[in-house]
Design goal:
4-stranded antiparallel β-sheet; alpha+beta; GSP17M-like_dom; 4 strands; General stress protein; 6 helices
Length: 113
């Protein structure tokens, strides 16, 4: 599933291999590498895909200090939804994407300039 709003583009893919391919497609489409992010439900899986694709983790720069600190005390689902919202999506969209991550899928997001 693909979704584009005024701030960001997102695509849910089945696995890390597809995520790496989607990151490459986004680069070729003109997205700045510093604005491409990958999320998976498992943080280790996220890190492996980020390393393989040379994409980015959602961090303090995107979330802000308060949300990044709050994530230390949130469940993984709440943390993922907060990260997705910080990239320009609504709470409802974040809830949808987090459910896809629960199913083992991977989310690739590219922020627009």
């Amino acid at each position: 599933m693909e979704f584009t709003n005024t701030q960001s583009y997102a695509k849910v893919v089945e696995n890390g291999t597809q995520a790496v391919q989607e990151v490459q497609n986004l680069r070729q489409s003109g997205y700045d590498n510093d604005r491409i992010y990958v999320l998976a439900h498992d943080s280790d899986k996220t890190s492996r895909i980020v390393d393989a694709s040379d994409a980015n983790n959602v961090g303090i720069k995107e979330e802000g200090v308060f949300d990044a600190f709050a994530n230390l005390f949130r469940s993984r689902g709440d943390e993922l939804r907060a990260k997705i919202v910080s990239l320009g999506f609504t709470e409802a969209e974040a809830g949808f994407y987090e459910k896809q991550l629960d199913l083992g899928k991977v989310l690739v997001i590219a922020k627009k300039d």
